[in-house]
Amino acid sequence: MGKTILLVGGQFGDEGKGKCIDFLTEKADVVARFQGGNNAGHTVIVKSEKFKFHLIPSGILHKGTLNVIGNGVVVDPKVLVGEIEGLEKRGFKITPNNLAISSSAHVILLKHIDEDLQTGQKIGTTGRGIGPAYTDKIARKGMRMSAFVEQNSPYAQRLKPLVKETYSVLNDAIKKKKNILLEGAQGTMLDVDHGTYPYVTSSNPTAGGASTGTGIGPRKINAVLGVFKAYTTRVGSGPFPTELGTEMQAKNEDMKKPLQPAEIQAANEGSEYYQGKVLRKQGMEYGTTTGRPRRTGWFDAVMANYSVIINSMDAIALTKLDVLSHLKKLRIAKAYRLGGKILPNFPTDGSMLSKCVPVYEEMKGWSQPLENVSSFSQLPSEAKAYIKRIEELTNTPVAMVSVGPGRSQTIVLKKNFFF
Ligand code: IMP
C-alpha cells in the first residue's frame, strides 16, 4: 500500500526539514517540491559528506527515487542547471528518470532578481527574485517552464528533456501505490496567507500549498508531518515573540569565533542574549542560502499550536534537540499576554504579534551531549520530559526526534507513521 506524506515546516523555515526529508526518502519512490524556489536551502550529510540543495529535492541522493519540481515552484534556470552539474561532478547522473520539472512552474528571470535586490531589504528577502517572480505569475504575465525550454539557450536545452506535466506523473504514481513525499520549503510562519505578513515569503509553505503546487488533490494526502526545531529561529525581519537578544546583536557577532565557556555561564546566570547566542553557536544557526546569522529564541507552543491547526498536522518531527544541551533551564512559551490580557488565540496580525509578551513555563535542562544517543530510553530524563511537554502543549505526538545532522542521529518514536 502506497502512502503520500506531506512534510511542512512548523516555524520560520530552517527547521531541519532536509534531514527529515532525507530520512523519509529512503523509503519514498517519489519526492516532490511544491512551492518556493532557491530561497530554500537544505543541507544533508551522508557519511560525513555535505550536500547543499536549493531547488532539487534531496531525494536525488537516493538511487531509484524520482524527484519532482512541482508547478508551484519558481525556477531559476541557471541555479537549477548549476545544481545538476554540481551533482554530476560528484557522480550522480541526472536524467528524466530521476528528475522531472513541471511545465507549469514559473521561471525566475534576471529582472526578478534585480527587482528583489532593490526592494527586498525591508523584509530581508534572500534576494533570489522569488517575490517578483510570483508577482508576475499572479499578474498573469510570467513565463512558464514550457515556454522557457522552447528557447535556444544552453540552459533551456539542458532542462528541456526534464520538463513534463508533473501532475500526471504524480497522480500515476499514486495510482500505482507508490510512496510519495511532498517536501515543503520555508515554514508556516513565512506563508503569504498564514504567516507574519508582510514579513513572509511569496508562496504557501503550509499544507494547502501542497495540493495547488503539485496537482495532487487534498484527499490523496494521507498524513502531515510538521517539522519543528526544539527551539525557534528566524532569518530576516519580522515579529518573533520568544526571541532572545535582538536581531542587531545577532548581526554584530563574529561568526567564526567559537562559543566560550564564560558565555555558557552567562547564559546560565540568566542573560537572554547569551542564551540566544548558545543556541546560535551550538546550533550553527547561519543561513544555508545567505550565510546570515539567524535570530534565536525559545520554543513557542502558542505558535506551534497554530501551525498544527492550519496544517492539520498528524505528528511532529522535533529536530536539533542536541543543541539544548548545557543550558540549565529551558523555557517554553505557553501563552501570550497583550495589554494585560491572555490572548485566547494566536494573533494573525503581525503588528499585534510583535507586541505580545510570552508567558513561559520553565523546564530543567541537561548538561550531557546527545549526539550519540540512538534511542528514546537513552535520553536524559529532562530531555524526555521536554519532548513530552511539547506533545502535551501541542496535542500532537512527536513521531521522530533528531539529535544531530547525520542520518544515524535520528530517534523514531512512532514507526507506523512513516512509510
Ligand atoms: P524571500 O523568500 O526571498 O522573498 O524572503 C522572504 C522572507 O522569507 C525573508 O525573511 C527570508 O529570510 C525568509 N526566507 C525565505 N526562504 C527561507 C528559508 O528557506 N528559510 C528561512 N527563511 C526563509
Structure overview:
There is one protein chain. The protein has about 425 residues and is an alpha/beta fold. It is about 30% helix and about 20% strand. It contains 14 helices and 20 strands. The protein has helices at about 15-25, 75-90, 110-120, 130-140, 145-150, 155-160, 165-175, 205-210, 245-250, 260-270, 270-280, 300-310, 350-355, 380-395; strands at about 5-10, 30-35, 40-45, 50-55, 65-70, 75, 100, 105, 165, 180-185, 225-230, 230-235, 295, 300, 315-320, 330-340, 340, 355-365, 400, 410. Strands 9-7-5-2-10-1-11-15-19-20 form a ten-stranded mixed sheet, with helices on both faces. Strands 14, 16, 17 and 18 form a four-stranded mixed sheet that branches. Helix 3 packs across helix 4 (about 130-140) and helix 10 crosses helix 11. The protein is globular, with a radius of gyration of 21 Å. The N and C termini lie close together (about 10 Å). The model has no long low-confidence stretch (mean pLDDT about 95). Inosinic acid binds near residues 12 and 123.
Give, in spatial order, the strands making up the sheet with the most strands. Answer: 9-7-5-2-10-1-11-15-19-20
Estimate the mean pLDDT confidence: 95
Bound molecules: inosinic acid
Q: Report the biggest beta sheet as strand number plus sense, adding barrel if it closes.
A: 10 strands, mixed
Strand content: 15-25%
Tell me, briefly, the overall form: globular
Output the number of helix runs: 14
What is the CA-based Rg, rounded?
21 Å
Derived from helix and strand composition plus strand pairing, the structural class reads: alpha/beta
How widely separated are the two ends?
Answer: 9 Å
Runs in which pLDDT lies below 50 for 5 or more consecutive residues are none
Helix content: 25-40%
Please give the number of β-strands: 20
